[in-house]
């Protein structure tokens, strides 16, 4: 009975007491840290404090168990295995925590400075993967496993895997190429050569996701996207010109038409969402002489690609109403047919 008491009960009491004390210290520490983080302007301390809340509970429990095992009278071989297990779990937990902290800080840094760096799933995956690989190497070292033969085996095995997963590796490196080249960024509006268009939602290790205007997602392998021809409507900037063709009858005065169109477009600036006043809207007598009409082009500028739909909608209504007030005729195609009578 005394043996069981010394081996099990006393170490358990010490372990539980240690865990309880550490949890109390943890609670007090996080209250102080939360107050301190609220007073600072940066969000980095808030990120670190929030991420550490959950794993710190497991670390407190692990340290308590470790101390309990250290004062116990368990056989030495069992103590060694238990201690190694605790070391591995703590190292792995710290590795995951550091990876999450770096990922959050990276996203916060890019958003705060408004850098042209895509915070994509692939970028975060590379960052987290690097930290996890380092953590795994440390765990192997703790377990007494030599890393050199493992790296040699991975080199030979990696070549075989690369040959077997050519498509996957092609997508991975194509995704990295897209990120580095910055031809496509998260949030850009692009149009593919196949006709599909939408906002870039994410660039992962295998695919790029594009959210179309009807609220559907197009998933494209990175290798296909890197080889295709596309239009990025957000490069070099979001602002774009919008040409609107307007036709009037041949009886109209071109000077008057030019003045009316420009006047309506300028009055709409500030009233129609997305329509810009700088550069100022202007009119050109292009394409010119049509089969049944005089064809003008009103050229204005919109904030970004999707604003063109609202701007066209509002401007066409305003132009139609103004033409009615000014007595300007909008022609429709017509043909004059001559019938030749057959002589008897």
Automatic annotation (TrEMBL):
Domain Mechanosensitive ion channel transmembrane helices 2/3 per the UniProt entry, residue ranges: 126-166
GO biological process entries: transmembrane transport
Compartments (UniProt record): Cell membrane
InterPro entries given in the database record: LSM_dom_sf, MS_channel_1st, MS_channel_C, MscS_beta-dom_sf, MscS_channel_2nd, MscS_channel_C_sf, MscS_channel_TM-2
Segments crossing the lipid bilayer: 6-25, 57-74, 86-106, 126-147, 153-180
One cellular-component annotation, GO: plasma membrane
Key words, A-Z: Cell membrane, Membrane, Transmembrane, Transmembrane helix
Topology relative to the membrane: Multi-pass membrane protein
Source species, domain of life: Bacteria
Mechanosensitive ion channel MscS domain span: 167-233
Family of this protein: Belongs to the MscS (TC 1.A.23) family.
The protein's name: Mechanosensitive ion channel protein MscS
């Amino acid at each position: 009975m005394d043996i069981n008491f010394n081996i099990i009960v006393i170490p358990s009491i010490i372990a539980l007491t240690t865990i309880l004390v550490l949890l109390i210290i943890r609670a007090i520490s996080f209250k102080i840290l939360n107050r301190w983080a609220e007073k600072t302007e940066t969000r980095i301390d808030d990120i670190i404090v929030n991420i550490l809340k959950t794993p710190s509970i497991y670390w407190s429990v692990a340290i308590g168990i470790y101390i309990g095992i250290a004062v116990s009278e368990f056989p030495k071989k069992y103590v060694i295995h238990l201690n190694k297990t605790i070391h591995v779990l703590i190292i792995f937990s710290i590795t995951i925590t550091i990876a999450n902290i770096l990922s959050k800080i990276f996203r916060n840094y890019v958003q705060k400075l408004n850098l042209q760096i895509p915070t994509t799933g692939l970028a975060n995956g590379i960052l987290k993967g690097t930290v996890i690989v380092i953590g795994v190497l440390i765990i192997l070292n703790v377990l007494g496993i030599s890393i050199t033969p493992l790296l040699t085996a991975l080199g030979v095995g990696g070549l075989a895997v690369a040959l077997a997963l050519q498509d996957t590796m092609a997508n991975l490196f194509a995704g990295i190429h897209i990120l580095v080249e910055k031809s496509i960024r998260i949030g850009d509006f692009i149009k593919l050569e196949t006709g599909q268009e939408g906002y870039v939602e994410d660039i992962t290790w295998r695919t790029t996701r594009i959210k179309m205007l009807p609220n559907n997602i197009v998933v494209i392998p990175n290798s296909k996207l890197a080889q295709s021809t596309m239009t990025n409507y957000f490069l070099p900037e979001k602002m774009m010109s919008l040409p609107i063709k307007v036709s009037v009858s041949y009886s109209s005065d071109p000077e008057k038409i030019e003045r009316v169109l420009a006047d309506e477009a300028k009055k709409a600036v500030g009233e129609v969402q997305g329509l810009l006043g700088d550069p100022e809207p202007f009119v050109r007598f292009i394409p010119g002489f049509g089969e049944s009409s005089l064809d003008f082009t009103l050229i204005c500028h919109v904030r970004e690609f999707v604003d063109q739909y609202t701007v066209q909608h509002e401007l066409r209504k305003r132009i139609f109403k103004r033409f009615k007030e000014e007595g300007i005729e909008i022609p429709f195609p017509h043909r004059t047919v001559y019938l030749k009578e057959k002589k008897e």
